[in-house]
């Protein structure tokens, strides 16, 4: 396994480059890039078809810089400098434990002051260049795809918060023991929490900019499936604990690689299992028994679903139907993966189930209802 990018580079090229990037985080970033690409393509396509329309905005140009703008730039510059310079001066610590460096109160005061001054000066100079003797108001056209930068930021912020909240609810006993650690830790993220909270933020902002919810949902279906596939690569390569139940069964096919059938996740970033012999790295744990590598299964399944959605998207004309199909595929895929996946279980009325099983069932039912609604109201939705 490759808990950090440095481990991955060492495996590929035999070089040891100490980098403060964990593999899972890199693939989360790549997942957002993949989603950004798919969302943008769909927004442009739907605008070309006349389904979505650009909006007009009034903006004032040529205004002088305000005290609030200078103060906010100084604040962000200070935070960046305070942490960045400290991280560079304590690089070994930063590489070995980036989370502690970033989330602690430790930092470099001079670095913070220097970056605060630089950010403030830069903002002042840029505003001075654009300042007019008399500020004026102009009308600009904003195309739907131009909203993506703003949408992706809000999706990331609220998606992360939602993923943390749902994960802590799923592992409530661990959260109670260490609530601060549970909230601040970069590990432990639940996909459905991110989907629900991040998706809600995107819908609200899109609606404020003239994109109706059903159209935005349809745009997001394929992109979210692609992003999920990419993100799961990071789960598998880092060994973040999203693996399956023990699998001691013999391979059904001799040509099937061991890592695709049953895997022990050596050097996993979750640091679960037994100590590895002769390992002197930070990540020296390996599962006692091989398990189903469910993350890699989800990589393949999610990508296949993305290809299907991407293929049929031009044939679907009714608003809401594409997202309904996405929900059905998503719910089915995750429900069946849960049958061989390690997860916390709840019991209600004697019926055991996982959080993901419950949510995936609700998503599948919601998808069916949304498809039925689209078909039943096709005349009403024709001019939606």
Structural summary, described in words:
- This protein is mostly helical.
- The protein folds into two domains: 202 residues, no CATH class; 69 residues, no CATH class.
- It contains 16 helices and six strands.
- The strands form three sheets. It has a two-stranded antiparallel ribbon with strand order 1-2. Strands 3-4 form a two-stranded antiparallel ribbon. The protein has a two-stranded antiparallel sheet with strand order 5-6.
- It is flat, with a radius of gyration of 24 Å.
Shape: flat
Content of β-strand:
5-15%
Average pLDDT works out at 89
What is the terminal-to-terminal distance?
A: 49 Å
- H-E order: HHEHHHHEHHHHHHEEHHEEHH
Total number of β-strand segments? 6
Structural class designation = mainly alpha
Put simply, the count of helices is: 16
Task: Note poorly predicted spans.
Answer: none
Main pleated sheet: 2 strands, antiparallel
Radius of gyration: 24 Å
Organism: Pedobacter polaris
Keywords: Cell membrane, Membrane, Transferase, Transmembrane, Transmembrane helix
Protein name: Diacylglyceryl transferase
GO cellular component, one term: plasma membrane
Pick out its properties.
single chain, 384 residues, mainly alpha, 2 domains, two-stranded antiparallel sheet, 16 helices, flat, Lgt, cell membrane, phosphatidylglycerol-prolipoprotein diacylglyceryl transferase activity
């Amino acid at each position: 396994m490759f808990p950090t990018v440095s481990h991955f580079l060492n495996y590929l090229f035999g070089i040891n480059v100490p980098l403060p990037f964990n593999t899972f985080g890199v693939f989360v970033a790549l997942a957002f890039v993949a989603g950004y690409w798919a969302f943008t393509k769909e927004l442009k396509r739907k605008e070309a078809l006349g389904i979505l329309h650009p909006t007009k905005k009034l903006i004032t140009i040529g205004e002088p810089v305000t005290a609030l703008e200078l103060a906010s730039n100084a604040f962000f510059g200070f935070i960046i400098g305070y942490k960045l310079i400290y991280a560079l001066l304590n690089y070994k610590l930063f590489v070995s434990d980036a989370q502690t460096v970033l989330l602690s109160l430790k930092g470099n005061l001079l670095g913070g002051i220097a970056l605060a001054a630089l950010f403030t000066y830069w903002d002042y100079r840029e505003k001075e260049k654009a300042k007019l003797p008399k500020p004026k108001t102009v009308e600009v056209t904003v195309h739907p795809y131009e909203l993506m930068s703003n949408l992706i930021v809000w999706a990331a912020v609220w998606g992360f918060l939602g993923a943390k909240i749902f994960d802590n609810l799923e592992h409530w006993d661990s959260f109670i023991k260490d609530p601060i650690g549970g909230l601040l830790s970069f590990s432990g993220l639940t996909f459905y929490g991110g989907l629900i909270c991040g998706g809600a933020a995107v819908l609200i902002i899109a609606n404020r900019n003239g994109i109706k919810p059903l159209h935005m949902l349809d745009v997001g279906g394929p992109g979210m499936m692609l992003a999920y596939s990419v993100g799961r690569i990071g789960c598998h390569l880092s060994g973040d604990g999203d693996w399956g139940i023990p699998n001691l069964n013999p391979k059904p096919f001799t040509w099937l690689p061991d890592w695709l059938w049953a895997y022990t996740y050596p050097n996993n970033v979750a640091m679960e299992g037994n100590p590895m012999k002769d390992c002197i790295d930070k990540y020296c744990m390996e599962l006692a028994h091989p398990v189903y590598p469910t993350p890699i299964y989800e990589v393949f399944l999610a990508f296949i679903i993305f290809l299907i959605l991407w293929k049929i998207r031009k044939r679907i004309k009714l608003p809401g139907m594409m997202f309904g199909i996405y929900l059905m595929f998503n719910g089915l895929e995750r429900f069946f993966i849960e049958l061989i996946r390690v997860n916390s279980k709840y019991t209600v009325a004697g019926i055991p189930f996982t959080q993901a099983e419950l949510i995936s069932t609700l998503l599948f039912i919601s998808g069916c209802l949304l498809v039925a609604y689209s078909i039943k109201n096709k005349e009403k939705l024709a001019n939606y």
